[in-house]
Each structure stands twice: as C-alpha cells, then as structure tokens.
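We close this part of the discussion by returning to an individual protein. The sequence in question and its structure tokens are set out directly beneath this paragraph:
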Amino acid sequence: MLPEVRPYVSTALADQLEHQLDLAPHLEAGQLDVEGIAGVAVVAAAHSDGYAATGHLLGLLAALPAPTAAGEHFWSDLWRSSGTAYLLPVNIKDPVLRSLAGEGTALARQILSAVDEMTPPQRSAAGEVIGQALVESDHLPDLKTQVIGELWLRDLEFTAWRVLHADRRSDDPAGRKVFFDAWTSV
C-alpha cells in the first residue's frame, strides 16, 4: 500500500491540495489520476519560491558549526556577541525541524526577530563570530571575517524575508483578481 500524500508536503500545501483540488488528506498517492497529479504539480510549483528559500535558510545554518559539544563555543560566542538568544540551537531546534518538512515560516520569523533585536554593534560583533567560523570551515583565510559574517547575516535576513513573503502570497484568489484587474486597467 502506498503512503498518504499529507506527510510529504507542508501543511499549507496540503491545505491547498485539499481545498483547491478537493483531495482528501488521507488520500493515498496511488489513487491519484493524471489530472490529480497535474494539479498537485501546479500547486507545488506555486509554492516553489518558499520551498527554495526555506532550503537556503537551512543551508546557511548548515554552514555554521553544528550544535554539538564541538560547536558549543561558537554558539555561546554568537549569543554573547549578538545579544539575542533567538538564534541559540535550543530556541531554533523546533523551527529548524519543521523547516526540514517544508514549513519554514516559523524559522524565518525567529531569524527576523533575532536580527531585529540586534543593535548595529551587536550585529557587527555577531558578524565577526560568524565570519570567523565560516573562514575556518570554508578555508577562506584571504577574506575578512567581518565581511564574510556580514554577508552571511544579510543573506540569512533576506532569505527569511523571502520565506515569509512567499507564504504571504499563498492562495488568495480575491487578491489575485484585484491585482489582475488593477494591471489590466492601466
């Protein structure tokens, strides 16, 4: 027997599949016909920006030292330098695990809260800590740690914004119609 569809897609995507395509959440993948598969592909494509951004967020976090005993020094330095506990592994573990299943909005909100909480000197200090870790792990000794860390933080911040923006644009037929009407009347 084939598995159900819902465990393999995000909650938002599963909800859209259920409402737009009238697919029951317990529907087995083997019960989809060609039209159903095409519908799933269209809905999934509409969510691809959010999935790609969520994957990039996870990739950025994966570039940092792992939250293990070996990486403990990095994470405590990041906490002290940034002045925020939002980025501590214990505080982002659940959103990271949800992101691995395609639900990146909680992680994106957590990241944007962390960045928003930092003062410019804290952001600079956090960038130095992050840059040092990246220089060591990526073997880029000829680049300045502060520059690398700031680029990483900017990328993290922009990517978190992309995750939230993609989620905001999810299924809104009325909004799409208003947008279409506005642009066709210009």
Remarks:
- Residues 1-8 have pLDDT under 50 and may be disordered.
